[in-house]
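Design a sequence for this backbone.
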């Protein structure tokens, strides 16, 4: 029966979070600094789970008003209309711009919600010591960090619209309070992805291998 590969932690090695250099720490309590880039080395990120949970819960709370409050308020000479994210999606779809409606729906509703659910799944799986599917969970974490930069699309659209449509007193477009909450969701989920230590995923794999031995 083939043996599993030895992990870096089992070999007494540590990877630099900045330049990814694999090196040996000074001692168990003080890992020291990377000999190549000088960044501080960490065997595991301090209180990774607690910090990630705190940021994730805060993002989930902000997600509700981000979708309920208007993100854009358009004022004309006779009317004033406030649009939420879903209201904007419906308007774009009914006006014939369904590709743009689909982009806004995915980037502004589905992506933030998917990041919240994915990070919550990773946290629960690590805390419960879930066995198996380690490669899939590591790949899921990489996807979450990759798509995080596209989550601000709705805020960018609102910003460009506000900057372009300023024909006062005939017409003006102003950002709504929902934009602040939506931006908070994006920032908090990005910070949560940064504070989560993906090496914890493989710690549970190592623990299960020791139990099998």
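Sequence:
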């Amino acid at each position: 029966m083939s043996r599993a590969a030895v992990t870096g932690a089992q070999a007494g090695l540590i990877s630099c979070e900045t330049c990814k250099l694999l090196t040996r720490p000074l001692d168990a309590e003080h890992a020291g600094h990377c000999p190549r880039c000088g960044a501080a080395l960490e065997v595991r990120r301090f209180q990774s789970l607690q910090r990630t949970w705190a940021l994730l819960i805060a993002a989930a709370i902000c997600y509700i008003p981000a979708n309920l409050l208007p993100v854009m308020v358009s004022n004309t000479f006779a009317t004033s209309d406030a649009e939420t994210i879903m209201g904007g999606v419906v308007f774009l779809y009914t006006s014939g711009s369904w590709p743009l409606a689909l982009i806004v729906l995915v980037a502004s509703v589905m992506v933030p919600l998917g990041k919240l659910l994915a990070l919550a799944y990773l946290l629960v799986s690590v805390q419960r010591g879930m066995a198996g599917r380690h490669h899939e969970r590591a790949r899921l974490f990489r996807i979450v960090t990759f798509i995080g930069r596209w989550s601000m699309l709705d805020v960018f659209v609102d910003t460009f619209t506000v900057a372009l449509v300023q024909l006062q007193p005939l017409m003006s477009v102003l950002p709504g309070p929902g934009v602040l909450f939506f931006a908070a969701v994006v920032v908090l989920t990005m910070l949560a992805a940064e504070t989560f230590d993906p090496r914890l995923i493989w710690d549970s794999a190592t623990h299960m291998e020791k139990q099998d031995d």
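The CA atoms of residues 133 and 139 lie 10 Å apart.
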